[in-house]
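Quick question: what would this complex look like in 3D?
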Amino acid sequence: MTRFSSELRDIFNMETQVGIAAAAVTLPVRKRVVGSLFQEESATLKPGIGARLGIEEVPICNGESASTMALATCQEALRRAELDVAQLDVIVDYSILPQEYLVPAWNMSNKLQHELGAKKAFTVGFSGGGATNFLVALGSAAAMLQANEKLTSALLVAADVTIPGNRILNPSDPVSVLGDAAGAMVLKKGVKGSVVIDTELHSDGSYHDVCYIPGGALAHPDDPALYRMELDKKRFDKAPKSETLKATLETLLERAGVKRADVVFGLYPNLSADDQQQFADAMGFSPGQIDTDNRKSHGHLQGTDFVVNYLSMIESGTVDKGQYFVAASHGMGFLAGVSLLEL
Amino acid sequence: MNTAIGIVGASYYLPPKRKAVTDIFRDEQIPAEPLAANVDFQRDIGIEAVHMASEETATSLALNACRSVLEKTATDPAEIDLIIDFTSIPEEYVAPTWSAAGIVQKEIGAPHAFATAVNTGGCASYHTTLKVVCSLMAAHDRYRTALLFAGDKVPEFNHTYYPITVICDGGSAVILKKGHERQRILSVEVATLGKLHDVWYIPGFHRRDPADKDRKWLHMTADIPKFNQEVIPMNLFMFRKVMRGALSLAGRKQQEVAYYIYPTFSTWDQKAFCQAFMVAPEKVFTDGLQRHGHLQETDMVLDYVDAIDEGHIKEGDLVMLTTNGAGFSWGAALIQH
């Protein structure tokens, strides 16, 4: 439980815990091996690069829209949470790739509100920060439930469909391979499992454009070559990602009064084998304390990596009731975030 | 909001260049026929001219407003814990992958903040953002100072959102602080009707027609039949819902509201609001309409600042900030002066 001031605790009766009631993921049935994607995008898959990425295949949409996948995964998450959609209070969108219309003038969460029949809910969405956008959504949704007596449930959702021809992130020196997916999590007040204890977020504005889509908006509206996710590899490598994450984790644990040794598992994005190893080394996680299998079979699914890895963690039984785990992401050097949870 | 979170200060920036709406209507080929028996869009809109950014970017408009509010409130950027971009139209790069929050953090030098953007709500994105930020500040001791900002630059030849309003470019910024008892945010209520998600939208680059040289894929597009059939009948009902919600949360009554901040869309829209809620026109800030037209979500900040500076809002007043957004969203916030 977040440590609130005594004044706030009295006023808001914030002793009520917020936890993950259920989660679900929708993956397209179709998969492609990364070798063929490298060929298609004129990138060379050298053995060293293959080992560094550690991604064998990725799920790819074959006509499914992002919101179709999102709707299916939201319905499944709500079913698992045994939550009547009419009682849902807030829908939070943490997608990171372009949507059906241009964001922020449009946002998928409103279409989902309609299609789900969530008449009581209102919608919120967040932008920027890569996979950390999930942690922004998680921390903000938990805060909304804690600070507003009338709000009791939140649905976090994202659906990311890669821009055609843009699956190899930085083809000249690949950093990841992007798959398509939708993920959803239901948060509820009073849930006793997977309690969201606290979230620490820190951004470094100088890295705001390390990973972004240069074209298609006001800066470069017309050039199709610029309408793709670009990574500035030099700055990405230079960014103190592990150091910042370590400091962020330490701040969070100190505030929560939890020892590092008591954190038994780390949920971390499936960007690459190299990136996951750097995280494990910096945080002191041993093999088996982070999931690496999903990376091989799914590649990087933006914030939905957390939902995929969370479901695998629950299914594996690696973490026991009452044990702590974290969800952490460097946000491509721009937005670092760590959430502390207790199963 | 029972925690004392107050508006320490707010500022805006308007680019110096102006364009008369008569010229805008001509250049954007706006229909000349009346909208209804008693409403002629071009004649009755009530806007004389709007500001237009030339070389300035959307982010630079926002940055000017941010610097202004930091100076006005004597806030050290190092104090800022949260930086939230609430811009509701496209910025320099594609969202949700990117937002201007990072640039603003870098440019003002706020090393301890976390920067993100709220990308929902249309013109009610200010209210959605207030809801999120007040929740974060109430739930966590560590969030004590927040900078909220927006920067709007509409593409060339997309200044008319027919049949609603004419759009002005500009930026706005607000500083919130926990423990600030003056200009205290008593409550924030937001509501969305998802079925209206596609009444107003911008198609996006992936939907562009390669033959389109006017960049219509970047233009705000309206489904006018749906707007007329589904938004108009719900609009005042939803305004009532959010205003009642905000009053109920704060334990206050409508009669106690001394002043209203309402969007500057058009004369007929302002009149309809006043009539529907039996609010005397002098209790609503309407002067901005003629001066600058509509500034999307920034209306709520700009009109609030001007209403204070021009003496419409006094110490002790209960102020209602209320707006709709992009056809699907409504927000109301109560501020105790």
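Answer marked as accepted. Chain B has two domains: 5-180, 187-336.
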